[in-house]
Amino acid sequence: xxxxxxxxxxIKGLQVAYGGIQAVKGVDMDxxxxxxxxxxxxxxxxxxxxxxxxxxxxxxxxxxVLFQGQSIKGVKPWTLVERGLVMVPEGRGVFARxxxxxxxxxxxxxxxxxxxxxxxxxxxxxTFPRLKERANQLAGTMSGGEQQMLAMARALMSQPKLLIxxxxxxxxxxxxxxxxxxxxxxxxxxxxxxxxxxxxANLALQAADRGYVMDSGNMIMTGNAHxxxxxxxxxAAYLGx
Length: 241
Hints:
The protein has helices at about 45-55, 75-85, 100-105, 115-125, 130-135, 145-155, 175-190, 200-205, 225-230, 230-240, and strands spanning about 10-20, 20-30, 35-40, 60-65, 70, 85-90, 160-165, 195, 210-215, 220-225. The longest helix is centred in the last third of the chain and has 16 residues, at about 175-190. A hairpin with a 2-residue loop joins β4 (about 60-65) and β5 (about 70). The protein has a six-stranded mixed sheet, sandwiched between helices. A four-stranded antiparallel sheet has the order 2-1-4-5, covered by helices on one side. The chain has a single domain (about 10-240), classed as 3-Layer(aba) Sandwich (Rossmann fold), CATH 3.40.50.300. The two termini are about 30 Å apart. It is an alpha/beta fold.
């Protein structure tokens, strides 16, 4: 990572409140092009709130978020998708009454030409062979792991510059979790910048280049992911050591 370059994503003094509750209390975070960054912390630390503020789903009280050097404060979520900032939300959010292919079409709505769509579907099916086997199945009848695959494939159809993943392994078996993390690694190595919030801090730090640790709405640590993985404080608090 060359920190002389401008970050693709820069968060400066971000504060987010729900009514009278201050959920995020002044977060600073930089993500550079091509990095895989993970944000770890206990439940209620403010991780998902931070992601929702970045992606325009929640207004923020103060501070700013810059994407590709430009402030995106107040920019609508669909406009951010057009710019290349895409999130796979916690809970997957697939269109239950649509087939797998129709869900992928929704992900590709920015790219209307048939050739681009066909290439995207080929990539999705190559990356997730299980989806190809069930191409015409309704998404709502799929398992949680298959829905997570579909949610990620749908996001990739939009050709993101920055992909944000919120708890991609939640509720999944160890086998499916391994599949999802292999895809995260593949996507990262292909050059897509990734921000990962993940309940399995051990796996997240093993996958990431750098990590941030969040607690009670504050960033309390940051550093090389391997250094955080071996830090006694992080091990005691988040890795079950």
